[in-house]
């Protein structure tokens, strides 16, 4: 019986480069090299943007009107989620040749635990290189990958040299790598929290590491413990192939509190569009539509509507949200945040009975 410690985990985070937009450019040569947005439409949001569009500041989740203003030459195409799913399945089949420990986060990214070198390639870097080579050869698309000893750093590393990049962060490099990055790039720290941190003088991982655990918990509640750990390169989460999703949602905080019904309905439509993109990426269905409302005084309420079968149609999803919102009119005070999401989720919802457009 050996008393030796188990080997350090070897985790790869694979993230496809501008996945939806890259698929569209692959399939239509006329779109290659041009600024492209998937999604959009009247009051819609950008589901994905090509790298040519990103040079103009176009980003996913951006209202289409803002995207057009930033890039007048921007081309919009309708999303083809059936095609994206098919390509995603191709990519996951490649992953399965290297490990059974695959944790998909969406159609275009996943964690892989390759601590066991199934194909005898020698290193996690070599495995990541081989995966990226095969993705390019079999799908015509590029992927970026991060290799490290934990999920948090592997995900940071995959974004470090995008597009078509590979970054390896060894255990002894982890804390310094995290310290060098802006906290706004940390997944799990959204724009609101990043802004709060910056107001406290916390701009980088190094700044965050100077705060004690009690100080972080006093400022950020239960999340303080997580922030204390990640800025030190500590993340003990395992790659779980059966990771359940509890909910998928999106929300938006407004610069000024809103009370006009028409304006609120228009904003909810944008939020619903972003949420539906995330729902499609997560490949889930849900029976409960939940509206989140935060008023200007920071009081918060939620309202929900449940269905007997999973909601599959984005029009039904939006209609349910609009019904929940309009039931609150006239609002007692200005609203600073709207959110909309699906709960009671189930995977592979293509195989289940679906709610049709008879809302």
From TrEMBL:
Subcellular location: Cytoplasm
Entry keywords, A to Z: Cytoplasm, DNA damage, DNA repair, DNA replication, DNA-binding, DNA-directed DNA polymerase, Magnesium, Metal-binding, Mutator protein, Nucleotidyltransferase, Transferase
Record carries keyword Lyase: no
Cofactor: Mg(2+)
Record-annotated site: Substrate discrimination: 20
Signal peptide stretch: none
PROSITE patterns: UMUC
Active site: 109
GO cellular component: cytosol
Keyword ATP-binding: no
GO molecular function, a single term: damaged DNA binding
Superkingdom field: Bacteria
Residues that coordinate or bind Mg(2+): 15, 108
Residue ranges constituting the UmuC domain according to the UniProt record: 11-190
Protein's GO biological process: DNA repair; DNA-templated DNA replication; error-prone translesion synthesis; SOS response
Enzyme Commission number(s): 2.7.7.7
Record text on cofactor binding: Binds 2 magnesium ions per subunit.
Sequence similarity: Belongs to the DNA polymerase type-Y family.
Protein role: Poorly processive, error-prone DNA polymerase involved in untargeted mutagenesis. Copies undamaged DNA at stalled replication forks, which arise in vivo from mismatched or misaligned primer ends. These misaligned primers can be extended by PolIV. Exhibits no 3'-5' exonuclease (proofreading) activity. May be involved in translesional synthesis, in conjunction with the beta clamp from PolIII.
Self-association and partners: Monomer.
Protein name: DNA polymerase IV
Organism this protein belongs to: Sphingomonas sabuli
